Amino acid sequence: MKKVKLTYLLLLTTYIVFAQDNVKEKADALNTSKNLTWDANKALSSNDFIGAEVDYRKAIAKSGENVAASYNLGNAYYNQATYGEAFGRFKQAGESATNKTDKHRAFHNMGNVFMKRKEYEKAVEAYKEALRNDPKDEETRYNLALAKELLKKKQDEQKKDDKNDENKDKEDKKDKDKKDEGDKGKDKKEDEKEGDGDKKEEQKKQPEKGDKPEQKKQPRPNQLSKQQVQNLLEAMQQKEKKVQEKIDAKKIKGVKIKNEKDW
Question: I need a surface site. Which of 61, 92, 110, 219 has the fewest CB within 10 A?
């Protein structure tokens, strides 16, 4: 029994020593991380962004409990307009934070990133989460109100654009239907015209209905020719002339001639 108790005490002692060592190791890592963060802050204040980025990354790798390293690196990226990287670091800070103050700051800045991206709906949610951790922060309240206003404006514009697109689609469909009707009418006229042309062409090739092929007219047996008619007229004129001459001769003979008056 004593041997069992001794073994238990030995294991307990080993665990305590290991835990203490682990705590000490974490504490040392956190201190080192804070020192690196301080160096990064100093480099950033000297406009040495590259040096600051390197030290911040080292600080984050050294200790995940160092919320300031992630948060400050997020701010550095934000000021460089590298919003994707900034959001990632603010999110990391928010997840690592163990107190409401740090969480409030992280979510407030995540909201700022969404505002820059014009993702107003996400910004509203981020600011709401920030206010859950610090309901009295007036700056967050102001940003939330602004995000809501911009979101409403964006939604109204989207509805207007959707309505315009819908009206445009209707107009395009109406124009298309009108064009199709016009094309059908045009095709019908062209078909009719083509049919009339074919019909006329066919009529040229064939005699009209009821017509017969032309034949050379033959004179009837009792019909005088043109020359015969001419000869007959001349003969009649000669006969009339002779008759007229006879009549004129008789008139001359019957007329009394007056003598000329002697003076």
Answer: 219
